[in-house]
Amino acid sequence: MQKRLRVAAYAVVVRGDEILLARSPTADGGREWVLPGGGMEHGEDPLETAVREVEEETGYRAEMTTLLGVDSHRSTLGATVDHHSLRLVYEARVTGGTLRPERNGSTDLAAWHPLVTVPALRRIRLVDTALRLWRERPDTGRVARGRGGERDG
User: Fold this and answer.
1) Looking at residue 69, which CATH number applies to its domain?
2) Is 146 a member of any domain?
3) Which end of the chain is more exposed for a tag (fewer CB within 10 A), N or C?
4) Where are the alpha helices (DSSP H) in 17-153?
């Protein structure tokens, strides 16, 4: 079985009672909400990754203010790939730019959502994990995994 490691950085951008999310297409033709963020390029610092990805996916320039924690997730992709995702989650604030969808990328829309409506959205598990990190701020930078119906991306 092939082993694959993907390191990525994401931003939790909360403004008042809203969170900034990006929408991503799914394999079944649907759409799901994700945090702005994505995979690190070789040699790139994770903080720089989060800044770059927020701007690419939302049009906003952002400052990463706090490292909230790390999410580590392992899954199998078919019968041939053992996939391990290591995701660094930052808290961020918007410093400039204008909200717009990503151009020719992995997401097709960026939008602010009231925090109270997030549980009703089709979203990846990382959104919930990141919100728990943001709310709870555990000393270890990790939250206990719960059971839920969300997909993981």
Assistant:
1) 3.90.79.10
2) no
3) N
4) 46-58, 125-136
- pLDDT digits over 68-84, tens only? 999 999 988 888 999 99
Geometric angle at alpha carbon 105, from 104 and 111, rounded to 5°: 105
Position 14: which residue type? V
Q: Give residue-wise pLDDT tens across range 13-22.
A: 999 999 999 9
* Structural domain containing residue 129: 2-136
Q: Is residue 141 part of a domain?
A: no
| Cα→Cα distances 139→5, 13, 135, Å | 25, 20, 12
Examine residue 55 and state whether it is found in any structural domain, yes or no.
yes
Q: Which of 27-36, 45-54, 142-151 has the lowest mean pLDDT?
A: 142-151
Give the list of residues 6+ apart from residue 19 with CB closer than 8 angstroms, or none.
12, 13, 112, 113, 115, 118, 131
Q: Where are the alpha helices (DSSP H) in 5-118?
A: 46-58
- Helix ranges (H only) for 36-106 are 46-58
Q: Is there a domain that residue 15 lies in?
A: yes
Q: By C-alpha distance, which of 77, 81, 89, 76 is closest to 7?
A: 89
Give the number of other Cβ atoms within 10 Å of residue 6's Cβ: 13
Q: What's the pTM?
A: 0.91
